[in-house]
């Protein structure tokens, strides 16, 4: 595919050996060239050179920092904010507009940093006993100070799928989305469920369509707050829809020509407004057009 996936392709050495070694980690934090990614809460800040970074001069020994790894040999950290952010990406208009302007590597770096910083901000207390937790392993773990339980960054698997029938695609729109915007159907994979089973269940629950021959296409980390989007393709057994309006606002079948119009013309398309370039749904639609050309 000629189109790269947003939030992938960072240039970090995650340097896992340093994470697990307190002495090496302290040495990294003490280096004169150590840098910290500057976020405004969980929003990115920019300079002419890309994402804003600073030295660690104003960071105290008790401040929570996550060690992201080495970037061109330089230790890079991100600070844990006071609060996390549970809003859906569709409501973060300012953030999403900013992300569209970022180079791919910068976008991938920001996405990972945002996810881990947000997780720490929302997990300062133990899920087992309610006691306070403290940062561990360079920020890739939290340990409870009371019951000593260990907690690890959460990643939620989400199946996002193209549904095809006789050369047309089924796409839907959620409540509160911008006018005329449509995207691939999606839903969380539940415990005890394979990806293929999750795809079939979600499509049937949302639109009443049975699908078969589920195949994997690509995956994308999505930092709002921390999901792994698992892109799939499936074939529908029919086109009759029974829309669950508690899940989605609308769903429609679009011909290949209409999908091509949407991807070529964006906001000015006559058919529908496609998902933004930062979303894997955009990639999936482009992949389908190239595959069926």
From TrEMBL:
<dbReference type="Pfam" id="PF09296">
    <property type="entry name" value="NUDIX-like"/>
</dbReference>
<dbReference type="Pfam" id="PF09297">
    <property type="entry name" value="Zn_ribbon_NUD"/>
</dbReference>
<dbReference type="GO" id="GO:0006742">
    <property type="term" value="P:NADP+ catabolic process"/>
</dbReference>
<dbReference type="GO" id="GO:0005829">
    <property type="term" value="C:cytosol"/>
</dbReference>
<keyword id="KW-0378">Hydrolase</keyword>
<dbReference type="InterPro" id="IPR020084">
    <property type="entry name" value="NUDIX_hydrolase_CS"/>
</dbReference>
<dbReference type="InterPro" id="IPR015375">
    <property type="entry name" value="NADH_PPase-like_N"/>
</dbReference>
<dbReference type="InterPro" id="IPR015376">
    <property type="entry name" value="Znr_NADH_PPase"/>
</dbReference>
<keyword id="KW-0520">NAD</keyword>
<comment type="similarity">
    <text>Belongs to the Nudix hydrolase family. NudC subfamily.</text>
</comment>
<dbReference type="InterPro" id="IPR000086">
    <property type="entry name" value="NUDIX_hydrolase_dom"/>
</dbReference>
<dbReference type="InterPro" id="IPR015797">
    <property type="entry name" value="NUDIX_hydrolase-like_dom_sf"/>
</dbReference>
<keyword id="KW-0479">Metal-binding</keyword>
<dbReference type="GO" id="GO:0035529">
    <property type="term" value="F:NADH pyrophosphatase activity"/>
</dbReference>
<protein>
    <recommendedName>
        <fullName>NAD(+) diphosphatase</fullName>
        <ecNumber>3.6.1.22</ecNumber>
    </recommendedName>
</protein>
<feature type="domain" description="Nudix hydrolase">
    <location>
        <begin position="153"/>
        <end position="276"/>
    </location>
</feature>
<dbReference type="InterPro" id="IPR050241">
    <property type="entry name" value="NAD-cap_RNA_hydrolase_NudC"/>
</dbReference>
<keyword id="KW-0460">Magnesium</keyword>
<dbReference type="Pfam" id="PF00293">
    <property type="entry name" value="NUDIX"/>
</dbReference>
<dbReference type="InterPro" id="IPR049734">
    <property type="entry name" value="NudC-like_C"/>
</dbReference>
<dbReference type="GO" id="GO:0046872">
    <property type="term" value="F:metal ion binding"/>
</dbReference>
<dbReference type="GO" id="GO:0019677">
    <property type="term" value="P:NAD+ catabolic process"/>
</dbReference>
């Amino acid at each position: 595919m000629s189109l790269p996936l947003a939030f992938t392709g960072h240039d970090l050495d995650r340097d896992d050996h340093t994470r697990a070694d307190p002495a090496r980690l302290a040495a990294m934090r003490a280096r004169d060239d150590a840098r910290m990614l500057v976020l405004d809460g969980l929003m990115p800040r920019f300079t002419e050179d890309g994402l804003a970074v600073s030295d660690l001069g104003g960071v105290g020994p008790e401040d929570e920092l996550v060690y992201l790894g080495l970037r061109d040999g330089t230790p890079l950290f991100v600070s844990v904010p006071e609060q996390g952010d549970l809003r859906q990406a569709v409501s973060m208009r300012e953030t999403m507009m900013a992300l569209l302007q970022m180079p791919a590597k910068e976008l991938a770096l920001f996405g990972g940093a945002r996810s881990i910083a947000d997780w720490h901000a929302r997990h300062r207390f133990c899920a087992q006993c309610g006691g306070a937790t403290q940062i561990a392993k360079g920020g890739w773990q939290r340990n409870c100070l009371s019951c000593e339980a260990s907690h690890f960054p959460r990643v939620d698997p989400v199946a996002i799928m193209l549904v095809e029938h006789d050369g047309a695609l089924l796409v839907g729109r959620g409540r509160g989305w911008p006018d005329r915007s449509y995207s691939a159907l999606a839903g969380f994979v539940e415990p005890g469920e394979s990806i293929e089973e999750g795809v079939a269940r979600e499509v049937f629950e949302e639109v009443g369509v049975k699908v078969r021959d589920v195949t994997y296409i690509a995956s994308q980390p999505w930092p709002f707050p921390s999901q792994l989007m698992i892109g799939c393709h499936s074939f529908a057994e029919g086109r009759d829809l029974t829309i669950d309006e508690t899940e989605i606002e609308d769903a429609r079948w679009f011909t290949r020509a209409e999908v091509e119009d949407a991807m070529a013309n964006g906001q000015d398309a006559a058919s529908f407004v496609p998902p933004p370039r930062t979303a894997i749904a955009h990639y999936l639609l482009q992949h389908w057009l190239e595959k069926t050309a």
